[in-house]
Design a protein that fits this description.
Layout lengths: L23 E6 L3 H10 L5 E7 L5 H8 L6 E3 L2 H7 L4 E4 L7 H9 L3 E5 L6 H14 L3 E4 L6 H12 L5 E9 L19 H4 L1 H11 L5 E9 L17 H7 L5 E8 L3 E8 L10 E5 L2 E5 L13 E7 L2 E7 L10 H15 L7 H20 L3 E2 L6
Parallel strand pairs: 1-2, 1-4, 2-3, 4-5, 5-6, 7-10
Antiparallel strand pairs: 7-11, 8-9, 8-15, 9-10, 11-12, 12-13, 13-14
Helix pairs in contact: 1-10, 4-5, 5-11, 6-8, 8-11
Length: 387
Amino acid sequence: MPDTVLSQFTQSYTEEKQASSKKLKIGIIGCGWIAEAHIESYLEMDDVEIVGAADLIPGKAEAFMKRYGVEGVRFYPSHKELIDNEQLDGVSICTYNTQHAAPTIYALKHGVNVLLEKPFTVTLDEAIEVMKAEKESGKVLSIGFQPRGDLNMQMIKKIVESGALGKVYYIQTGGGRRRGIPNSTFIEKDTAGIGALGDIGCYSLDMVLNAIGYPKPLTVSGYKSAYFGQNPEYATADRFHTAEENARRFSVDDFAAAFVRLEGDIILDFRISWAMHMNTPGDTIILGTKAGLRIPSTDCWNGSVGGEMTLYHDLAGVRMEEKIPILKDNSGHGLFYKKIRGFLDAIINGTPAPVPSSQIVINQAIIDGICKSAELGREIEITIPEV
């Protein structure tokens, strides 16, 4: 199953694709680790044909397809050659973070639908340029936030939208790993751009912002550090580097925190970590005027709910604690399958992107604001340009 590439989630899924004799022609841009989950999902679908793949490293795309037994694929050294030479219905963009914007813009401008892995981009400016290309093209652009497909994530949104919490005024969210620093392109600024903040922080932000309707951020006071990633005692070796070499390579954040003011008089207290001397930076808490919701954290944050949630409220003057059990599913489809199926169905049916850029640009604006505020050492205003 493709979700074993990252971690195991539970979820329920009803497939809604239209029957079609025409196979969608798909290309994969970037044939690294995350692309494994994409191809494994595509290979489960009988209306998909993978026709092309591109990777900057010679031979990498060929080896990738051979490993999965996919034949008849044409290979290219860059996204431009792939898009210029194939009649594509869509592409999965699985490049490292700093190369998210360029191939997405190129694909959209050439009439190709895009499923873009998270984070959206590295900077807000890049996200805006992508959205301009999306608007001009009229094509589908969906951002890779597969945790949205989890029933428990959906339950958080349902609880908020039901009005059970009343007016939401404060949110504490984030996640962490006591030790969980990745290697490869994740730890260098030239390739990743941002560290834990973009890798897993974007999931934490989406969990709560999606639940409350993605209000715009107004101001942010941000902080970030790299005390663990740059220390050989905590860095890890990989196939190509020693721990000492990876510590020297490390040039992104391994911890970030922020205090964000949102429209609607809502405060967002956020923290995220790849490594720390703690098992968790705390549960997610959503406080409302009628009730509060506690969402347990996980030991190794990956965008999931760590256990049954608790709703705190008063009933007839009595303080109540109501447990919300974890929802499970036996459909056999993982979250990556759902993410990709939703993207393909939007192409087939002409429906909106399942995870639209109009929402995730707000997520990106907060990440961008945290970085800028941390570098300046003070609170800053956040302005999102109109597209």
